[in-house]
Specification:
This protein has 373 residues and is mainly beta. The chain has one helix and 25 strands. Strands 2-8-7-4-5 form a five-stranded mixed beta sheet, with no helix packed on it. Strands 10-17-16-12-13 form a five-stranded mixed beta sheet, with no helix packed on it. Strands 19-25-24-21-22 form a five-stranded mixed beta sheet, with no helix packed on it. A hairpin with an 8-residue loop joins strand 7 and strand 8. Residues 1-31 have low confidence and may be disordered.
Length: 373
């Protein structure tokens, strides 16, 4: 009997639980706020009197229209001392780039940390109008003595030639580069000039340009090689702190007197789908020391993925406004081709070449097109 009473008591308890109202597990829960992707400059400089933007990304699971505040507090790096606090904004003004994109931005001035050289930590938090707070996220920065290094800027490139676009093999091409630096010309350490042969990924030669008496000017001489085609000249300056300027690239078409034609550029896709059977254009830009009238033909040969040659080789390209060519007589030879379901997938090698009226051939240029489903 005693066992029955215990069982009945358990049953009554269960009935009481089941009789209670079961709430929707989602309805009524306060929104979850999450902060991520905090950004701050890693180093601030005592002598660089400028604002430093910092920001954090807010995710509000309840709404895309967050109502509340996102704040920041600066502490000493060990959190032992609270120094300053403020609010971040998402209004698209001043340093906030885009309004209402959930990235909240503030601005820090070195006066905010009393110009004391040390390490600091910014702590971010958010709170909605219901008083629900987010997690916190923090990021460290350091205030150092000195000033923010500004990289050099390449201002101007000048050649001692009638044309900056064309040079002839055997020429001695002198060039002057003008470079500026916010810290002054004495802050410029070296200026490098690299000379890249047609379609090359590494320089054929690289030299240090000579500093001239005129401040900010650097000089180099390039003995133009006997290889025709479109050469790329790359210039970059470095300051004494190791800061590199944005490179300046200048292309020069090198012509070899009484030499063969030169293919200066190939324009073709890297990947095509055989499922679409869409036509696409292949083009080669060609130059010749004796002019376009000396070019007999421009063509390509194709090698299929299995290593066999295409039965249609060679394929002629046109510069007469037909076969997909856009402009007559502009030195760009083109052909419209189609790859469809009947073509195998894999790598197709297209070798472009040009021949002049004396039978001399250009240096071939190979382009790979990957055919996918």
């Amino acid at each position: 009997m005693k066992k029955i009473l215990i069982s009945l008591s358990v049953l009554i308890a269960l009935m009481m639980i089941l009789s209670c109202t079961v709430k929707d597990p989602v309805a009524g829960i306060d929104p979850i706020l999450r902060l991520s992707d905090a950004y701050s400059p890693g180093v601030l400089y005592l002598e660089s009197d400028q604002p430093y933007p910092f920001s954090v990304l807010l995710v509000d699971d309840d709404s895309n229209n967050f109502t509340g505040a996102v704040s920041w507090t600066i502490f000493s790096v060990d959190f032992s001392n609270e120094i300053l606090s403020g609010a971040l904004l998402d209004n698209g003004l001043e340093y906030d780039l885009v309004a209402d994109d959930s990235r909240y931005t503030g601005v820090l001035d070195i006066d905010d940390v009393d110009r004391i050289v040390s390490s600091y930590r910014i702590v971010f938090r958010a709170e909605n109008i219901n008083g629900i707070e987010s997690d916190t996220i923090s990021i460290e920065f350091e205030l150092k003595a000195g000033e923010l290094n500004s990289i050099p800027t390449i201002e101007l490139l000048v050649f001692n030639a009638a044309s900056m676009d064309t040079a002839y093999a055997g020429d001695s091409l002198e060039m002057i580069l003008e470079v500026s630096d916010v810290q002054g010309h004495a802050d410029i350490d070296t200026v490098l000039a690299g000379f890249y042969a047609p379609f090359a990924a590494v320089p054929d030669a690289q030299i240090v340009m000579l500093r001239q008496a005129d401040p900010g000017k650097f000089k180099a001489t390039w003995n133009v090689p006997e290889l025709g085609g479109m050469w790329n000249l790359r210039f970059q300056a470095k300051d004494i702190s190791g800061g590199l300027s944005i490179p300046k690239i200048h292309s020069v078409r090198v012509m070899v007197p009484d030499g063969p034609p030169v293919i200066t550029e190939v324009i073709a896709p890297d990947t095509v789908s055989r499922a679409t059977s869409q036509s696409f254009l292949l083009s080669a830009e060609v130059a010749d020391p004796f002019g376009l009238q000396d070019i007999l033909r421009v063509f390509f040969n194709t090698t299929k993925p299995d290593g066999s040659a295409s039965s249609g080789n060679p394929f002629k390209l046109y510069d007469d406004g037909t076969q997909g060519d856009l402009t007559t007589g502009d030195g760009i030879f083109s052909l419209m081709i189609t790859i469809g379901p009947g073509n195998a997938t894999g790598n197709y090698q297209f070798e472009f070449n040009a021949e002049d009226r004396s039978g001399r051939l250009a240096n071939p240029v190979v382009h790979t097109i990957i055919v996918v489903e």
